[in-house]
From TrEMBL:
<feature type="region of interest" description="Disordered">
    <location>
        <begin position="567"/>
        <end position="597"/>
    </location>
</feature>
<dbReference type="GO" id="GO:0005930">
    <property type="term" value="C:axoneme"/>
</dbReference>
<keyword id="KW-0966">Cell projection</keyword>
<dbReference type="InterPro" id="IPR026720">
    <property type="entry name" value="CFAP91"/>
</dbReference>
<protein>
    <recommendedName>
        <fullName>Cilia- and flagella-associated protein 91</fullName>
    </recommendedName>
</protein>
<feature type="domain" description="CFAP91">
    <location>
        <begin position="1"/>
        <end position="154"/>
    </location>
</feature>
<comment type="similarity">
    <text>Belongs to the CFAP91 family.</text>
</comment>
<dbReference type="InterPro" id="IPR032840">
    <property type="entry name" value="CFAP91_dom"/>
</dbReference>
<feature type="compositionally biased region" description="Polar residues">
    <location>
        <begin position="571"/>
        <end position="581"/>
    </location>
</feature>
<dbReference type="Pfam" id="PF14738">
    <property type="entry name" value="CFAP91"/>
</dbReference>
<keyword id="KW-0206">Cytoskeleton</keyword>
<keyword id="KW-0963">Cytoplasm</keyword>
Protein backbone atom coordinates (compact mmCIF):
# COMPACT_ATOMS: atom_id res chain seq x y z
CA UNK A 1 0.00 0.00 0.00
CA UNK A 2 1.24 3.48 -0.90
CA UNK A 3 0.12 6.84 0.31
CA UNK A 4 -0.71 9.82 -1.93
CA UNK A 5 2.33 11.68 -0.61
CA UNK A 6 4.57 8.89 -1.93
CA UNK A 7 3.16 9.16 -5.45
CA UNK A 8 4.90 11.05 -8.25
CA UNK A 9 4.30 14.82 -8.06
CA UNK A 10 6.70 16.13 -10.73
CA UNK A 11 5.37 16.00 -14.30
CA UNK A 12 6.88 13.43 -16.58
CA UNK A 13 9.54 14.74 -19.01
CA UNK A 14 10.36 12.13 -21.69
CA UNK A 15 13.68 11.85 -23.41
CA UNK A 16 14.16 13.76 -26.62
CA UNK A 17 16.39 13.70 -29.69
CA UNK A 18 17.62 16.88 -31.38
CA UNK A 19 18.06 16.62 -35.11
CA UNK A 20 21.09 18.09 -36.71
CA UNK A 21 20.68 21.70 -37.77
CA UNK A 22 17.85 22.41 -35.29
CA UNK A 23 18.22 25.02 -32.55
CA UNK A 24 15.17 24.62 -30.33
CA UNK A 25 14.31 27.52 -28.05
CA UNK A 26 12.88 25.16 -25.44
CA UNK A 27 16.30 23.59 -24.85
CA UNK A 28 17.53 26.96 -23.61
CA UNK A 29 15.07 26.76 -20.70
CA UNK A 30 16.67 23.70 -19.09
CA UNK A 31 17.36 25.72 -15.95
CA UNK A 32 13.62 25.74 -15.24
CA UNK A 33 12.13 22.76 -13.44
CA UNK A 34 8.95 21.98 -11.61
CA UNK A 35 8.91 23.98 -8.40
CA UNK A 36 11.84 26.15 -9.57
CA UNK A 37 10.40 28.29 -12.33
CA UNK A 38 7.61 25.96 -13.44
CA UNK A 39 4.74 26.58 -13.77
CA UNK A 40 5.99 29.79 -15.33
CA UNK A 41 5.04 33.07 -13.65
CA UNK A 42 4.93 36.66 -14.86
CA UNK A 43 8.57 37.39 -13.92
CA UNK A 44 9.78 34.23 -15.65
CA UNK A 45 7.84 35.13 -18.79
CA UNK A 46 9.39 38.62 -18.79
CA UNK A 47 12.86 37.13 -18.32
CA UNK A 48 12.28 34.70 -21.18
CA UNK A 49 11.07 37.54 -23.40
CA UNK A 50 14.14 39.63 -22.55
CA UNK A 51 16.45 36.69 -23.29
CA UNK A 52 14.65 36.14 -26.60
CA UNK A 53 15.05 39.82 -27.53
CA UNK A 54 18.73 39.71 -26.57
CA UNK A 55 19.31 36.63 -28.70
CA UNK A 56 17.58 38.29 -31.63
CA UNK A 57 19.74 41.42 -31.21
CA UNK A 58 22.92 39.33 -30.90
CA UNK A 59 21.99 37.30 -33.97
CA UNK A 60 21.43 40.47 -35.98
CA UNK A 61 24.86 41.82 -35.04
CA UNK A 62 27.62 41.21 -37.65
CA UNK A 63 30.26 38.63 -36.69
CA UNK A 64 33.33 39.92 -34.92
CA UNK A 65 35.68 38.53 -37.52
CA UNK A 66 34.01 40.67 -40.22
CA UNK A 67 34.48 43.92 -38.29
CA UNK A 68 37.81 43.21 -36.68
CA UNK A 69 39.49 46.00 -38.68
CA UNK A 70 36.60 48.54 -38.34
CA UNK A 71 36.93 50.42 -35.04
CA UNK A 72 33.60 52.24 -35.48
CA UNK A 73 31.67 48.99 -35.86
CA UNK A 74 33.56 47.51 -32.89
CA UNK A 75 32.63 50.52 -30.73
CA UNK A 76 29.02 50.32 -31.89
CA UNK A 77 28.92 46.57 -31.12
CA UNK A 78 30.44 47.18 -27.68
CA UNK A 79 27.88 49.96 -26.99
CA UNK A 80 24.97 47.70 -27.95
CA UNK A 81 26.26 44.88 -25.75
CA UNK A 82 26.83 47.27 -22.84
CA UNK A 83 23.26 48.59 -23.24
CA UNK A 84 21.97 45.03 -23.12
CA UNK A 85 24.02 44.35 -19.97
CA UNK A 86 22.81 47.56 -18.32
CA UNK A 87 19.25 46.69 -19.19
CA UNK A 88 19.70 43.23 -17.72
CA UNK A 89 21.15 44.71 -14.54
CA UNK A 90 18.26 47.22 -14.34
CA UNK A 91 15.70 44.44 -14.53
CA UNK A 92 17.72 42.44 -12.04
CA UNK A 93 17.64 45.38 -9.60
CA UNK A 94 13.89 45.64 -10.04
CA UNK A 95 13.52 41.94 -9.27
CA UNK A 96 15.68 42.30 -6.17
CA UNK A 97 13.62 45.29 -5.01
CA UNK A 98 10.38 43.38 -5.61
CA UNK A 99 11.77 40.43 -3.65
CA UNK A 100 12.82 42.76 -0.84
CA UNK A 101 9.34 44.31 -0.79
CA UNK A 102 7.74 40.87 -0.68
CA UNK A 103 10.05 39.89 2.17
CA UNK A 104 9.22 43.09 4.03
CA UNK A 105 5.51 42.39 3.59
CA UNK A 106 6.03 38.87 4.87
CA UNK A 107 7.97 40.21 7.88
CA UNK A 108 5.22 42.75 8.59
CA UNK A 109 2.60 40.01 8.41
CA UNK A 110 4.65 37.81 10.72
CA UNK A 111 5.05 40.69 13.19
CA UNK A 112 1.33 41.35 13.07
CA UNK A 113 0.57 37.69 13.65
CA UNK A 114 3.02 37.62 16.57
CA UNK A 115 1.40 40.73 18.04
CA UNK A 116 -2.03 39.20 17.52
CA UNK A 117 -0.95 35.97 19.22
CA UNK A 118 0.49 38.02 22.08
CA UNK A 119 -2.77 39.94 22.46
CA UNK A 120 -4.74 36.70 22.36
CA UNK A 121 -2.50 35.24 25.07
CA UNK A 122 -2.97 38.37 27.20
CA UNK A 123 -6.75 38.26 26.71
CA UNK A 124 -6.81 34.54 27.61
CA UNK A 125 -4.77 35.28 30.73
CA UNK A 126 -7.13 38.10 31.69
CA UNK A 127 -10.15 35.88 31.09
CA UNK A 128 -8.61 33.19 33.25
CA UNK A 129 -7.90 35.69 36.04
CA UNK A 130 -11.42 37.05 35.76
CA UNK A 131 -12.95 33.57 35.93
CA UNK A 132 -10.79 32.75 38.97
CA UNK A 133 -11.81 35.96 40.75
CA UNK A 134 -15.47 35.30 39.94
CA UNK A 135 -15.16 31.77 41.31
CA UNK A 136 -13.56 33.13 44.50
CA UNK A 137 -16.31 35.71 44.90
CA UNK A 138 -18.97 33.05 44.43
CA UNK A 139 -17.26 30.88 47.05
CA UNK A 140 -17.15 33.77 49.53
CA UNK A 141 -20.78 34.68 48.86
CA UNK A 142 -21.80 31.06 49.35
CA UNK A 143 -19.93 30.91 52.66
CA UNK A 144 -21.52 34.17 53.83
CA UNK A 145 -24.94 32.86 52.86
CA UNK A 146 -24.40 29.60 54.79
CA UNK A 147 -23.20 31.55 57.83
CA UNK A 148 -26.23 33.86 57.58
CA UNK A 149 -28.59 30.87 57.47
CA UNK A 150 -26.91 29.34 60.53
CA UNK A 151 -27.14 32.55 62.54
CA UNK A 152 -30.77 32.97 61.55
CA UNK A 153 -31.58 29.45 62.74
CA UNK A 154 -29.87 30.18 66.04
CA UNK A 155 -31.98 33.31 66.50
CA UNK A 156 -35.14 31.35 65.73
CA UNK A 157 -34.20 28.75 68.33
CA UNK A 158 -33.54 31.45 70.90
CA UNK A 159 -36.87 33.07 70.15
CA UNK A 160 -38.75 29.80 70.53
CA UNK A 161 -36.94 29.06 73.76
CA UNK A 162 -37.65 32.48 75.25
CA UNK A 163 -40.22 32.61 78.09
CA UNK A 164 -43.42 34.58 77.88
CA UNK A 165 -43.43 37.40 80.42
CA UNK A 166 -46.73 38.86 81.63
CA UNK A 167 -46.96 42.59 82.16
CA UNK A 168 -49.46 44.42 84.36
CA UNK A 169 -51.97 46.83 82.86
CA UNK A 170 -50.75 50.38 82.48
CA UNK A 171 -53.75 52.65 82.99
CA UNK A 172 -51.92 55.79 81.90
CA UNK A 173 -50.82 54.26 78.59
CA UNK A 174 -54.32 52.93 77.90
CA UNK A 175 -55.89 56.36 78.25
CA UNK A 176 -52.99 58.02 76.41
CA UNK A 177 -53.44 55.88 73.29
CA UNK A 178 -56.63 56.46 71.27
CA UNK A 179 -56.28 52.97 69.79
CA UNK A 180 -56.50 51.21 73.14
CA UNK A 181 -59.54 49.21 74.31
CA UNK A 182 -60.64 52.05 76.54
CA UNK A 183 -61.63 54.09 73.49
CA UNK A 184 -62.26 51.21 71.07
CA UNK A 185 -63.07 48.00 72.93
CA UNK A 186 -63.35 44.71 71.08
CA UNK A 187 -66.80 43.21 70.52
CA UNK A 188 -65.56 39.66 71.10
CA UNK A 189 -64.77 40.64 74.69
CA UNK A 190 -68.46 41.43 75.38
CA UNK A 191 -68.35 45.20 75.01
CA UNK A 192 -70.79 46.88 72.57
CA UNK A 193 -70.00 50.57 72.14
CA UNK A 194 -73.13 51.29 70.04
CA UNK A 195 -75.62 49.79 72.49
CA UNK A 196 -77.22 53.13 73.40
CA UNK A 197 -76.58 54.88 70.11
CA UNK A 198 -80.18 56.11 69.80
CA UNK A 199 -79.47 58.67 72.46
CA UNK A 200 -77.19 60.52 70.08
CA UNK A 201 -79.72 60.76 67.25
CA UNK A 202 -80.29 64.41 66.32
CA UNK A 203 -83.93 65.41 65.71
CA UNK A 204 -84.78 68.79 64.23
CA UNK A 205 -87.14 70.33 61.71
CA UNK A 206 -84.60 70.20 58.88
CA UNK A 207 -84.33 66.43 58.87
CA UNK A 208 -87.86 65.43 59.90
CA UNK A 209 -90.04 67.65 57.63
CA UNK A 210 -90.14 68.34 53.90
CA UNK A 211 -90.35 72.10 54.42
CA UNK A 212 -87.21 71.92 56.52
CA UNK A 213 -85.38 70.11 53.74
CA UNK A 214 -86.45 72.81 51.27
CA UNK A 215 -85.24 75.49 53.66
CA UNK A 216 -81.94 73.68 54.12
CA UNK A 217 -81.50 73.37 50.36
CA UNK A 218 -82.25 77.06 49.88
CA UNK A 219 -79.63 78.02 52.47
CA UNK A 220 -76.95 75.79 51.03
CA UNK A 221 -74.63 77.42 48.44
CA UNK A 222 -75.09 76.69 44.75
CA UNK A 223 -71.76 74.87 44.33
CA UNK A 224 -72.90 72.23 46.84
CA UNK A 225 -75.33 70.86 44.20
CA UNK A 226 -72.84 70.99 41.32
CA UNK A 227 -70.37 68.14 40.85
CA UNK A 228 -66.72 69.10 41.01
CA UNK A 229 -65.41 66.01 39.28
CA UNK A 230 -63.31 66.96 36.28
CA UNK A 231 -62.55 64.35 33.70
CA UNK A 232 -58.97 64.22 32.57
CA UNK A 233 -58.70 65.11 28.91
CA UNK A 234 -56.91 62.51 26.79
CA UNK A 235 -53.45 63.39 25.58
CA UNK A 236 -53.77 64.04 21.86
CA UNK A 237 -50.13 64.89 21.18
CA UNK A 238 -46.88 63.07 21.85
CA UNK A 239 -43.87 64.43 23.70
CA UNK A 240 -42.43 65.75 20.43
CA UNK A 241 -45.58 67.74 19.65
CA UNK A 242 -46.96 65.46 16.92
CA UNK A 243 -50.58 64.38 16.80
CA UNK A 244 -51.19 60.73 17.59
CA UNK A 245 -52.35 58.48 14.78
CA UNK A 246 -55.71 57.49 16.32
CA UNK A 247 -56.76 61.13 16.80
CA UNK A 248 -55.89 62.38 13.31
CA UNK A 249 -59.25 61.42 11.82
CA UNK A 250 -61.12 63.12 14.70
CA UNK A 251 -59.07 66.29 14.28
CA UNK A 252 -59.71 66.36 10.53
CA UNK A 253 -63.47 65.98 11.14
CA UNK A 254 -63.40 68.73 13.80
CA UNK A 255 -61.48 71.09 11.51
CA UNK A 256 -63.91 70.38 8.67
CA UNK A 257 -66.89 71.03 10.97
CA UNK A 258 -65.32 74.24 12.34
CA UNK A 259 -64.55 75.52 8.86
CA UNK A 260 -68.08 74.79 7.68
CA UNK A 261 -69.65 76.34 10.80
CA UNK A 262 -67.42 79.42 10.64
CA UNK A 263 -68.03 79.85 6.92
CA UNK A 264 -71.79 79.86 7.59
CA UNK A 265 -71.34 82.21 10.54
CA UNK A 266 -69.11 84.57 8.52
CA UNK A 267 -71.71 84.65 5.76
CA UNK A 268 -74.42 85.54 8.27
CA UNK A 269 -72.18 88.18 9.86
CA UNK A 270 -71.39 89.71 6.48
CA UNK A 271 -75.11 89.88 5.66
CA UNK A 272 -75.80 91.37 9.07
CA UNK A 273 -73.00 93.94 8.65
CA UNK A 274 -74.30 94.94 5.24
CA UNK A 275 -77.82 95.42 6.57
CA UNK A 276 -76.51 97.35 9.59
CA UNK A 277 -74.38 99.61 7.44
CA UNK A 278 -77.36 100.38 5.19
CA UNK A 279 -79.52 101.11 8.24
CA UNK A 280 -76.79 103.30 9.75
CA UNK A 281 -76.42 105.21 6.51
CA UNK A 282 -80.19 105.79 6.53
CA UNK A 283 -80.15 106.95 10.14
CA UNK A 284 -77.16 109.24 9.64
CA UNK A 285 -79.18 111.43 7.28
CA UNK A 286 -80.57 114.26 9.54
CA UNK A 287 -84.05 115.62 9.06
CA UNK A 288 -84.96 119.29 8.51
CA UNK A 289 -86.18 119.81 12.09
CA UNK A 290 -83.01 118.21 13.48
CA UNK A 291 -80.87 120.49 11.38
CA UNK A 292 -82.71 123.58 12.65
CA UNK A 293 -82.66 122.51 16.30
CA UNK A 294 -79.08 121.33 16.34
CA UNK A 295 -77.04 123.11 18.99
CA UNK A 296 -73.40 123.79 19.00
CA UNK A 297 -71.03 122.41 21.59
CA UNK A 298 -70.32 124.91 24.45
CA UNK A 299 -67.10 126.77 23.82
CA UNK A 300 -66.22 127.44 27.46
CA UNK A 301 -66.71 123.87 28.70
CA UNK A 302 -63.58 122.74 30.57
CA UNK A 303 -62.76 119.78 32.73
CA UNK A 304 -62.37 120.55 36.44
CA UNK A 305 -59.56 118.62 38.06
CA UNK A 306 -60.35 117.44 41.56
CA UNK A 307 -57.71 118.31 44.19
CA UNK A 308 -55.62 115.57 45.72
CA UNK A 309 -57.06 114.33 49.04
CA UNK A 310 -55.22 115.30 52.19
CA UNK A 311 -53.16 112.69 53.95
CA UNK A 312 -54.73 110.97 56.90
CA UNK A 313 -53.65 112.38 60.24
CA UNK A 314 -51.94 109.74 62.27
CA UNK A 315 -53.28 109.07 65.74
CA UNK A 316 -51.06 108.11 68.61
CA UNK A 317 -52.59 105.99 71.27
CA UNK A 318 -51.46 107.45 74.51
CA UNK A 319 -52.89 107.64 77.97
CA UNK A 320 -54.65 111.02 78.09
CA UNK A 321 -56.47 112.88 80.76
CA UNK A 322 -59.96 114.30 80.46
CA UNK A 323 -58.61 117.81 80.01
CA UNK A 324 -56.37 116.79 77.15
CA UNK A 325 -59.22 114.85 75.52
CA UNK A 326 -61.48 117.91 75.65
CA UNK A 327 -58.70 120.03 74.14
CA UNK A 328 -58.15 117.48 71.40
CA UNK A 329 -61.87 117.33 70.57
CA UNK A 330 -61.96 121.14 70.41
CA UNK A 331 -58.93 121.22 68.13
CA UNK A 332 -60.50 118.62 65.82
CA UNK A 333 -63.73 120.61 65.66
CA UNK A 334 -61.78 123.78 64.86
CA UNK A 335 -59.90 121.97 62.11
CA UNK A 336 -63.15 120.70 60.58
CA UNK A 337 -64.63 124.20 60.60
CA UNK A 338 -61.54 125.70 58.99
CA UNK A 339 -61.43 122.95 56.38
CA UNK A 340 -65.14 123.38 55.59
CA UNK A 341 -64.76 127.12 55.30
CA UNK A 342 -61.82 126.69 52.93
CA UNK A 343 -63.84 124.31 50.73
CA UNK A 344 -66.79 126.74 50.76
CA UNK A 345 -64.46 129.59 49.71
CA UNK A 346 -63.14 127.44 46.84
CA UNK A 347 -66.71 126.70 45.75
CA UNK A 348 -67.64 130.37 45.66
CA UNK A 349 -64.47 131.21 43.78
CA UNK A 350 -65.22 128.52 41.21
CA UNK A 351 -68.80 129.69 40.88
CA UNK A 352 -67.58 133.19 40.22
CA UNK A 353 -65.11 132.01 37.59
CA UNK A 354 -67.63 129.71 35.86
CA UNK A 355 -70.56 132.06 35.98
CA UNK A 356 -70.82 132.21 32.19
CA UNK A 357 -70.87 128.44 31.90
CA UNK A 358 -73.52 128.20 34.57
CA UNK A 359 -75.60 130.74 32.74
CA UNK A 360 -75.17 128.86 29.50
CA UNK A 361 -76.14 125.57 31.08
CA UNK A 362 -79.18 127.23 32.69
CA UNK A 363 -80.15 128.56 29.28
CA UNK A 364 -79.78 125.04 27.86
CA UNK A 365 -82.04 123.48 30.47
CA UNK A 366 -84.59 126.22 30.16
CA UNK A 367 -85.93 124.97 26.83
CA UNK A 368 -89.43 124.05 25.91
CA UNK A 369 -90.91 120.65 26.51
CA UNK A 370 -90.99 119.86 22.78
CA UNK A 371 -87.36 120.70 22.44
CA UNK A 372 -86.57 118.66 25.54
CA UNK A 373 -88.47 115.73 24.05
CA UNK A 374 -86.59 116.25 20.80
CA UNK A 375 -83.36 116.23 22.75
CA UNK A 376 -84.36 113.03 24.48
CA UNK A 377 -85.15 111.44 21.12
CA UNK A 378 -81.78 112.60 19.77
CA UNK A 379 -80.13 111.24 22.88
CA UNK A 380 -81.87 107.90 22.45
CA UNK A 381 -80.90 107.87 18.77
CA UNK A 382 -77.29 108.64 19.63
CA UNK A 383 -77.25 105.96 22.31
CA UNK A 384 -78.80 103.48 19.88
CA UNK A 385 -76.19 104.34 17.27
CA UNK A 386 -73.45 104.01 19.88
CA UNK A 387 -74.78 100.61 20.89
CA UNK A 388 -75.02 99.59 17.22
CA UNK A 389 -71.50 100.88 16.65
CA UNK A 390 -70.25 98.96 19.66
CA UNK A 391 -72.06 95.85 18.45
CA UNK A 392 -70.61 96.31 14.97
CA UNK A 393 -67.14 96.84 16.43
CA UNK A 394 -67.63 93.72 18.55
CA UNK A 395 -68.73 91.74 15.50
CA UNK A 396 -65.78 93.09 13.51
CA UNK A 397 -63.42 92.11 16.31
CA UNK A 398 -65.08 88.68 16.41
CA UNK A 399 -64.64 88.27 12.66
CA UNK A 400 -61.04 89.46 12.94
CA UNK A 401 -60.45 86.95 15.74
CA UNK A 402 -61.98 84.16 13.65
CA UNK A 403 -59.96 85.16 10.60
CA UNK A 404 -56.86 85.46 12.75
CA UNK A 405 -57.50 81.98 14.11
CA UNK A 406 -57.84 80.66 10.55
CA UNK A 407 -54.69 82.50 9.55
CA UNK A 408 -52.83 81.17 12.58
CA UNK A 409 -53.96 77.62 11.84
CA UNK A 410 -53.01 77.93 8.18
CA UNK A 411 -49.68 79.58 9.06
CA UNK A 412 -48.97 76.92 11.68
CA UNK A 413 -49.77 74.15 9.22
CA UNK A 414 -47.72 75.89 6.53
CA UNK A 415 -44.73 76.40 8.84
CA UNK A 416 -45.03 72.82 10.08
CA UNK A 417 -45.13 71.58 6.49
CA UNK A 418 -42.16 73.79 5.53
CA UNK A 419 -40.13 72.62 8.53
CA UNK A 420 -40.88 68.99 7.70
CA UNK A 421 -40.04 69.61 4.05
CA UNK A 422 -36.77 71.24 5.13
CA UNK A 423 -35.93 68.25 7.31
CA UNK A 424 -36.87 65.93 4.45
CA UNK A 425 -34.72 67.89 1.97
CA UNK A 426 -31.77 67.88 4.39
CA UNK A 427 -32.19 64.14 4.92
CA UNK A 428 -32.55 63.63 1.17
CA UNK A 429 -29.38 65.62 0.50
CA UNK A 430 -27.54 63.62 3.15
CA UNK A 431 -28.76 60.34 1.68
CA UNK A 432 -27.86 61.60 -1.82
CA UNK A 433 -24.36 62.45 -0.60
CA UNK A 434 -24.05 59.00 0.98
CA UNK A 435 -25.27 57.43 -2.27
CA UNK A 436 -22.71 59.43 -4.27
CA UNK A 437 -19.93 58.40 -1.88
CA UNK A 438 -21.06 54.76 -2.06
CA UNK A 439 -21.27 54.97 -5.86
CA UNK A 440 -17.79 56.47 -6.03
CA UNK A 441 -16.39 53.77 -3.75
CA UNK A 442 -18.17 51.14 -5.81
CA UNK A 443 -16.67 52.51 -9.03
CA UNK A 444 -13.21 52.65 -7.47
CA UNK A 445 -13.58 49.06 -6.30
CA UNK A 446 -14.91 48.03 -9.70
CA UNK A 447 -11.92 49.70 -11.36
CA UNK A 448 -9.56 47.94 -8.95
CA UNK A 449 -11.32 44.64 -9.48
CA UNK A 450 -11.27 45.22 -13.25
CA UNK A 451 -7.53 45.92 -13.17
CA UNK A 452 -6.92 42.88 -11.00
CA UNK A 453 -9.12 40.75 -13.24
CA UNK A 454 -7.32 42.00 -16.36
CA UNK A 455 -3.97 41.22 -14.77
CA UNK A 456 -5.20 37.76 -13.80
CA UNK A 457 -6.63 37.19 -17.28
CA UNK A 458 -3.37 38.30 -18.91
CA UNK A 459 -1.36 36.11 -16.54
CA UNK A 460 -3.70 33.22 -17.21
CA UNK A 461 -3.40 33.68 -20.98
CA UNK A 462 0.38 33.83 -20.68
CA UNK A 463 0.41 30.71 -18.54
CA UNK A 464 -1.93 28.97 -21.00
CA UNK A 465 0.29 29.99 -23.91
CA UNK A 466 3.41 28.78 -22.11
CA UNK A 467 1.67 25.54 -21.20
CA UNK A 468 0.49 25.11 -24.80
CA UNK A 469 4.00 25.67 -26.12
CA UNK A 470 5.44 23.20 -23.61
CA UNK A 471 2.75 20.66 -24.43
CA UNK A 472 3.36 21.25 -28.13
CA UNK A 473 7.08 20.67 -27.64
CA UNK A 474 6.34 17.47 -25.73
CA UNK A 475 3.85 16.36 -28.37
CA UNK A 476 6.23 17.14 -31.22
CA UNK A 477 8.97 15.22 -29.44
CA UNK A 478 6.68 12.26 -28.78
CA UNK A 479 5.33 12.37 -32.36
CA UNK A 480 8.80 12.38 -33.89
CA UNK A 481 9.82 9.55 -31.59
CA UNK A 482 6.68 7.55 -32.36
CA UNK A 483 6.96 8.23 -36.10
CA UNK A 484 10.46 6.85 -36.17
CA UNK A 485 9.52 3.78 -34.15
CA UNK A 486 6.19 3.25 -35.91
CA UNK A 487 7.81 3.59 -39.33
CA UNK A 488 10.25 0.81 -38.57
CA UNK A 489 7.51 -1.37 -37.04
CA UNK A 490 5.11 -0.79 -39.96
CA UNK A 491 7.73 -1.61 -42.56
CA UNK A 492 8.73 -4.83 -40.84
CA UNK A 493 5.07 -5.84 -40.24
CA UNK A 494 4.13 -5.01 -43.84
CA UNK A 495 6.96 -7.15 -45.18
CA UNK A 496 5.97 -10.03 -42.94
CA UNK A 497 2.23 -9.80 -43.82
CA UNK A 498 2.97 -9.46 -47.53
CA UNK A 499 5.10 -12.58 -47.43
CA UNK A 500 2.37 -14.50 -45.54
CA UNK A 501 -0.40 -13.38 -47.90
CA UNK A 502 1.66 -14.21 -50.96
CA UNK A 503 2.39 -17.71 -49.66
CA UNK A 504 -1.29 -18.26 -48.71
CA UNK A 505 -2.53 -17.01 -52.10
CA UNK A 506 -0.03 -19.27 -53.89
CA UNK A 507 -1.29 -22.27 -51.93
CA UNK A 508 -4.94 -21.43 -52.76
CA UNK A 509 -4.15 -21.04 -56.46
CA UNK A 510 -2.29 -24.31 -56.43
CA UNK A 511 -5.21 -26.10 -54.71
CA UNK A 512 -7.74 -24.61 -57.20
CA UNK A 513 -5.58 -25.69 -60.09
CA UNK A 514 -5.35 -29.24 -58.72
CA UNK A 515 -9.15 -29.25 -58.13
CA UNK A 516 -9.82 -28.19 -61.73
CA UNK A 517 -7.51 -30.86 -63.07
CA UNK A 518 -9.08 -33.63 -60.94
CA UNK A 519 -12.78 -32.47 -61.18
CA UNK A 520 -15.34 -34.89 -62.76
CA UNK A 521 -18.93 -34.59 -64.10
CA UNK A 522 -20.56 -35.05 -60.68
CA UNK A 523 -18.58 -32.19 -59.13
CA UNK A 524 -19.54 -29.95 -62.10
CA UNK A 525 -23.28 -30.63 -61.63
CA UNK A 526 -23.04 -29.97 -57.89
CA UNK A 527 -21.32 -26.65 -58.56
CA UNK A 528 -24.07 -25.59 -61.03
CA UNK A 529 -26.83 -26.64 -58.60
CA UNK A 530 -25.26 -24.59 -55.78
CA UNK A 531 -25.04 -21.51 -58.02
CA UNK A 532 -28.71 -21.79 -59.06
CA UNK A 533 -29.92 -22.47 -55.51
CA UNK A 534 -27.92 -19.62 -53.95
CA UNK A 535 -28.44 -16.88 -56.56
CA UNK A 536 -31.28 -17.49 -59.07
CA UNK A 537 -34.05 -18.92 -56.87
CA UNK A 538 -33.83 -16.17 -54.13
CA UNK A 539 -34.01 -13.50 -56.83
CA UNK A 540 -37.21 -15.01 -58.36
CA UNK A 541 -38.87 -15.39 -54.94
CA UNK A 542 -38.07 -11.78 -54.09
CA UNK A 543 -39.58 -10.51 -57.36
CA UNK A 544 -42.81 -12.52 -56.89
CA UNK A 545 -43.20 -11.27 -53.30
CA UNK A 546 -42.81 -7.63 -54.37
CA UNK A 547 -45.40 -8.12 -57.14
CA UNK A 548 -47.87 -9.68 -54.69
CA UNK A 549 -47.49 -6.74 -52.25
CA UNK A 550 -47.98 -4.23 -55.06
CA UNK A 551 -51.19 -6.01 -56.20
CA UNK A 552 -52.55 -6.01 -52.62
CA UNK A 553 -51.85 -2.29 -52.15
CA UNK A 554 -53.37 -1.48 -55.54
CA UNK A 555 -56.78 -2.76 -54.39
CA UNK A 556 -56.89 -0.34 -51.44
CA UNK A 557 -55.56 2.47 -53.57
CA UNK A 558 -58.31 1.97 -56.16
CA UNK A 559 -60.97 1.99 -53.41
CA UNK A 560 -59.61 5.29 -52.04
CA UNK A 561 -59.62 6.83 -55.51
CA UNK A 562 -63.17 5.66 -56.06
CA UNK A 563 -64.38 7.24 -52.81
CA UNK A 564 -62.53 10.51 -53.39
CA UNK A 565 -63.10 11.22 -57.03
CA UNK A 566 -66.60 9.74 -57.44
CA UNK A 567 -67.90 10.25 -61.01
CA UNK A 568 -64.40 10.31 -62.46
CA UNK A 569 -63.93 6.74 -61.28
CA UNK A 570 -65.57 5.30 -64.41
CA UNK A 571 -63.12 7.11 -66.63
CA UNK A 572 -60.22 5.75 -64.65
CA UNK A 573 -61.73 2.22 -64.59
CA UNK A 574 -60.65 1.42 -68.11
CA UNK A 575 -57.12 2.34 -67.35
CA UNK A 576 -57.10 0.17 -64.24
CA UNK A 577 -58.55 -2.80 -66.20
CA UNK A 578 -55.86 -2.56 -68.79
CA UNK A 579 -53.29 -2.31 -66.05
CA UNK A 580 -54.75 -5.39 -64.36
CA UNK A 581 -54.52 -7.38 -67.58
CA UNK A 582 -50.93 -6.38 -68.00
CA UNK A 583 -50.17 -7.40 -64.42
CA UNK A 584 -51.86 -10.78 -64.92
CA UNK A 585 -49.89 -11.33 -68.08
CA UNK A 586 -46.73 -10.44 -66.24
CA UNK A 587 -47.59 -12.89 -63.44
CA UNK A 588 -48.07 -15.71 -65.85
CA UNK A 589 -44.76 -14.97 -67.51
CA UNK A 590 -42.83 -14.73 -64.26
CA UNK A 591 -44.36 -17.80 -62.64
CA UNK A 592 -43.27 -20.19 -65.39
CA UNK A 593 -39.60 -20.50 -64.34
CA UNK A 594 -40.57 -21.52 -60.85
CA UNK A 595 -42.94 -24.16 -62.21
CA UNK A 596 -40.33 -25.28 -64.68
CA UNK A 597 -37.79 -25.66 -61.97
Amino acid sequence: MYRDSEAQTDPYSPLYVVNTGENLETLKLTSLSYGYGLPVGLFDVERIERARQRREIEENLPPYKDIANNLVQIAKRRKILEGLENREWYFREREVEAMQEVRLNVIVQLLRRREQRKQEAISRRLDQKWSESCAQNETKCRAIKYRYIGELRKLLKLRLAAKEYKFKRDMIMDYAKPSSQVFAPLTRLGVFPDRSSERYVVKNIYSSRYEGLLTLEARLPRFAFQPRIRLQQPKLHTKDGFLKRKYRHQKELAELHDKRFLSCKIGKLINFFVSKQLHAQYLQKPSVSERNTALRKPRFLQKIEKPMPRPITSDYITIKSEESERQEVAVIMLQQLIRGRAIQTQMYEGKRKRSELIAESRSTHALLEDEQAQKKREKLTILTKQEDLGYLLHQERLVEDILGQFECDSLANMLDFLSKELDRLIEERRIHALVLIAERQRRIREAEECGTRQKEERRRREQDEIFKQLVKVHEDTVDSYLINIAGLAVNSAADYLAKEEISTLAQKIEQANLYELNRGELETNELAAELIHNFLIPFVNKSSHELHEERRKRKYLNGAHREIWGPSHDASGNVSDSTGLQLKHHDTTTSTPNVWW
